[in-house]
Amino acid sequence: MNLVFKCSLAGVMLILTGCDTETVTSAQQQQHFICKSLIQGFLRIQTLGHYQLDKDDKIAAELTQLNYIVQPEHRQYGLPQQQRLRFSCLQQHNLVQVRLIDPSHAQAQLVLSLAIPSSAHMKRLTAYTWTAR
Questions:
Q1: Buried-state track 58-84, b at ≥16 Cβ within 10 A, e below 16
Q2: How far is CA 114 from its chain centroid?
Q3: Cβ atoms 55, 37 nearer than 8 A
Q4: pLDDT of 67-122, one tens digit each?
Q5: Is the pTM of this model over 0.70?
Q6: What is the pLDDT of residues 16-25, one digit of tens each?
Q7: Cα 35 to Cα 53: distance, rounded to the nearest angstrom
Q8: Is 31 in a helix, a strand, or coil?
Q9: How much helix, strand and coil, in percent to the nearest 5, is found in the chain?
Q10: 131 Cβ partners below 8 Å, 6+ apart?
């Protein structure tokens, strides 16, 4: 009986791993890391470190743009609440732009922009060189 259960469980797990249709590329992981870091840094600079960052997968329209929602970590019901903030992070080539979305005016304000050096430029800057003593 125990062997049958283990075999059944292994079969179900094998089937479920085959159902995972969403594969995340390393470029998407890198973009998410950059966007998340920039948004968290922006929140800290604005003394909003108590906001919690969540990636909003439902809103993401294309691969180069990711949307995020941040909200206060602790919510107390019956008290006035701080509103949720929405960010859009767009990466085009080596430029990453983070915009704060104002839902009441349907506008997005650019709050951060980051130019990422090319791989060749970074290799040249970080290459080993001989130094004379």
A1: eeeeeeebbbbbbbeeeeeeeeeeeee
A2: 15
A3: no
A4: 777 777 666 666 666 678 888 888 888 899 999 988 787 788 999 999 988 888 88
A5: no
A6: 555 544 566 7
A7: 11
A8: helix
A9: 35, 30, 35
A10: none
